[in-house]
Design brief:
The structure holds two protein chains of two kinds. By secondary structure, chain A is an all-beta fold. Helix content of chain A is about 0%, strand content about 50%. Chain A contains no helices and eleven strands. In chain A, a hairpin with a 5-residue loop joins strand 5 and strand 6. The termini of chain A are far apart. Chain B is built from no helices and eleven strands. Chain B is globular. In chain B, strands 2, 4, 5, 9, 10 and 11 form a six-stranded mixed beta sheet that branches. In chain B, strands 1-3-8-7-6 form a five-stranded antiparallel beta sheet, with no helix packed on it. Chain B has strands spanning about 5, 10-15, 20-25, 35-40, 45-50, 55-60, 60-65, 70-75, 85-95, 100, 105-110. The chains are: A mainly beta, B mainly beta. The interface of A and B includes residues 43, 100, 105 and 113 of A.
Chain lengths: ~120, ~110
């Protein structure tokens, strides 16, 4: 299957600082990318959907000014957690899809473990 | 609101046994039903998926059974192995192409 690379795989930052997470589709062009957050022993919760060249669509309850998403190219999307706080500590996962046909698979990155101290 | 309900929350099976995980959905507009496998500290990986015009799909030891009238679908893992121990998520995809996950099932296969 297609490869989605997420970087970094883990990061520790101080409270109040910002952290950027990158999501790259390595061997296909991703028209749509999704960002998820997963707390321990819980399911993945969709945070936002981004289409290349347009503003991201955020799910209800997700602060768009805190979680900045940029999808500047067909192979790269970034999630920036601004002014991070300990409650933002979580596992962040991106996924990318190449088309909109029914059944088109979304490929997932390996996730980023964010710990805010 | 929960668009897809998954059960059981956890499952323990002996090696060689059959693991069965169930999901129920409400929105009849969903048109793609995938199952994902996730190991600790990793992103989920697609295991098998089905579209609503098919009642069953089998790939190796993994089978999806789909009941459109009951709005339910299930994952069957035949000859379960310790390496299958992971968390499994069902998913639903609708016209907006957004993937919504079930709550997850932690499967443990005993050697």
């Amino acid at each position: 299957g297609a490869v989605v690379s997420q970087h970094p795989s883990w990061v520790i930052c101080k409270s109040g600082t910002s952290v950027k997470i990158e999501c790259r589709s390595l061997d296909f062009q991703a028209t749509t990318m999704f960002w998820y957050r997963q707390f321990p022993k819980q399911s993945l919760m969709l945070m936002a959907t981004s289409n290349e060249g347009s503003k991201a669509t955020y799910e209800q309850g997700v602060e768009k000014d805190k979680f900045l998403i940029n999808h500047a190219s067909l192979t790269l999307s970034t999630l920036t957690v601004t002014s991070a706080h300990p409650e933002d500590s979580s596992f962040y996962i991106c996924s990318a899809r190449s088309g909109a046909r029914a059944g088109t698979e979304a490929f997932f990155g390996q996730g980023t473990r964010l710990t805010v101290v | 609101q929960q668009q897809v309900k998954q059960s059981p929350q956890s499952l323990i099976v002996q090696k060689g046994g059959i693991s069965i995980i169930n999901c129920a959905y409400e929105n009849t507009a969903f048109d793609y039903f995938p199952w994902y496998q996730q190991f600790p500290g990793k992103g989920p990986a697609l295991l098998i998926a089905i579209r609503p015009d098919v009642s069953e799909k089998k790939e190796g030891r993994f089978t999806i059974s789909f009941n459109k009238s009951a709005k339910q679908f299930s994952l069957h893992i035949m000859d379960s192995q310790p390496g299958d121990s992971a968390t499994y998520f069902c998913g639903t995809v609708g016209s907006a192409r957004q993937l919504t996950f079930g709550s997850g099932t932690q499967l443990t296969v005993l050697p």
